[in-house]
Amino acid sequence: MRDRPPVAEMTEIAASTASLPDRANALLDRLDRWVPFEAAWLALTDPWSKVYAPIGTCRLDRSVTSYLDRPAVAQEIELTGLNRDRPPVSVAELPIAVDELPTWAECLTPAGFREGLGVALFEPNGAHVGFLGLLYSSKEPPTPAMRDRLGQLSPLIARALSPMRSLLASTRLVEGAVAGAVMLRDGTTCPLPGLDDHTLLDAESPVVDIARGTLLAGQVYRSFLWPVGNDSGAGDHVRMTVLAATELPAFVLGIVLMTPDCGARGLTPRELQVLGLLVEGCSNQQISRRLVVAPRTVATHVEHLLGKLQAPTRTLAAVRAEREGCYVPPAPTCLPVRRH
């Protein structure tokens, strides 16, 4: 195993389907063979909570890992320039003395560490993924060979841990997706590499509001239809699929994907709107007010959609529509208060 090139080992881990913590621990295990260390800390950057979220440690006491999981540590990393895309830096090269850095003065030095090697993890496309710190009890600085080797391997480590990698794997679950966006907990979105952008996936879009509300409510999956071009219910529809980020840091909520072809069971645009309000538990009177149509018109729409869904009751129609994703949900600001 030792004879295998480190790049080959890291690439193999990056391509594996193992969980994020398992990949992180495998990376540290392999790295120890090529860039020996006494202890290590591997973390993802979390811009929402201003901390680095630990995903892998090696030979560190729990008290040390608990200390490292603080916003102040992220501030020190930024203060010392260790959040920039640059070669690995040793403790002796830091622009601030270690006794003036609380993480070292209060935690790492008392734990017996005197030297270290830190590097920010960046993907080849420039995305900042996280931070890797290697720790040593000796004051002897790391050798140039160790620095060079860590610098060569750090982009592969970043690729293996990238949240985008896990999200892209999720997109393959939705056949035919042509556009997508990543939803972050701070209310922003970012594009998914390999998929197009679309105005329906902008941060201010009602589709994104619905998707965000779905994930914040604890759902891991939702599918629904949405009209293209406007929210009046007229014209063609696309399918929106919402997937939670189940193994990623808390600042990533999940993704929303757009698929152009969708089955609507022959339902008209207005019937899809009515069905969406049925799914939300609205009465005919509430639907009438929401759509600004007569109650008799709503009753006719309900009768027609019951037949098309082959559902004897409106409750069963709503269940089938939600299960199949065959409805257009109302925008969040238009939702009525549910009665319990």
UniProtKB/TrEMBL annotation:
Gene Ontology terms, MF aspect: DNA binding
SUPFAM superfamilies named among the record's database cross-references: C-terminal effector domain of the bipartite response regulators (SSF46894), GAF domain-like (SSF55781)
Sorted UniProt keywords: DNA-binding, Transcription, Transcription regulation
Domain (HTH luxR-type): residue spans on this chain: 260-325
GO-annotated biological processes: regulation of DNA-templated transcription
InterPro entries, alphabetized: Sig_transdc_resp-reg_C-effctor (IPR016032), Tscrpt_reg_LuxR_C (IPR000792), WH-like_DNA-bd_sf (IPR036388)
Name of the protein described by the UniProt record: Regulatory LuxR family protein
Organism: Kribbella voronezhensis
